[in-house]
Amino acid sequence: MLQGRDLPGRLSKDMLLDSGVLHAVNEHYAYLTAFSDSLYGRANILSDVMPQTAIACMTTAAWVWCGGVFPTSFDVVSTSHFRKFMMNRPVRTYARHIEPGHIQRIGELQLTSPPRTACDLALLPAHMLFEDGWDAIVHKLMGDYGVTVDECAALLAERRFPPQAKQARQAYQFFGLPVPEYLLEADEEPEPLLP
Question: 10: which residues sit within 8 A by CB, 6+ positions away?
Fold first, then answer.
């Protein structure tokens, strides 16, 4: 990740952005576009800015696995408290327990595995999942990394969802799986999954 001070001047930064050599994250930060073309490159970009003890998850992990547009937030699993914003993007911290088998390391970056990332994204509220295009990313994760519906079923079964029963039912339906009885009976108003 490059900062403006890493370059000889504003004009050089503008020229590199205009020519596509750099991709701007905001007015102060940019990264080499060539790095974002590979899994290891994207992990390297994030490892420069992510807290070392945090595990990238949700939309942040999806960017590492699939590429595309740089994440609009930093989604992390951690028991630590982080600043509300990094690089003008919100940091959304989740204090979930993640089994070691659901965590992978690419270079210096820890992130959720493709199956775990796909399942976490499928648990997003419907307006985010479908309107923001995360459903297509879930399908891309499944196709690119061989994530099966059976793997997703096992991951979903490991978790007891209320107070997010509505999102859990949606995730089961998204993967074409039968919804467990305890989720059909849960009719409480779910709390938002994301802050």
Answer: 4
* Other CB atoms within 10 Å distance of the CB of residue 98: 16
Secondary structure class of 186 (helix, strand, coil): coil
Nearest 5°: the CA angle 67, 193, 87 is: 45
- How far from each other are the two terminal CA atoms of the chain, in whole angstroms? 27
What tokens were used for 77? Answer: 């699993």
DSSP assignment, residue 127?
Answer: I
- Structural domain boundaries, residue 131: 113-195
Q: Is residue 175 part of a domain?
A: yes
What one-letter code names the amino acid at 107? G
Q: CB of 61 within 8 A of CB of 32?
A: no
Decide if 162 is inside a domain: yes
What is the pTM (predicted TM-score) of this model?
0.83
Provide the domain count of the chain: 1
Can you tell me which residue has the tokens 């939309």? Answer: 59
Phi, psi values for residue 92, rounded to 5°: -105, 110
Is 42 part of a structural domain of the chain? Answer: no
Q: How far are the Cα atoms of 16, 38, 168 from residue 61, in angstroms, in the given order? A: 27, 14, 20
pLDDT attached to residue 193: 44
Locus of tokens 């802050």: 195
**pLDDT exceeding 90 applies to what percent of the chain?**
34
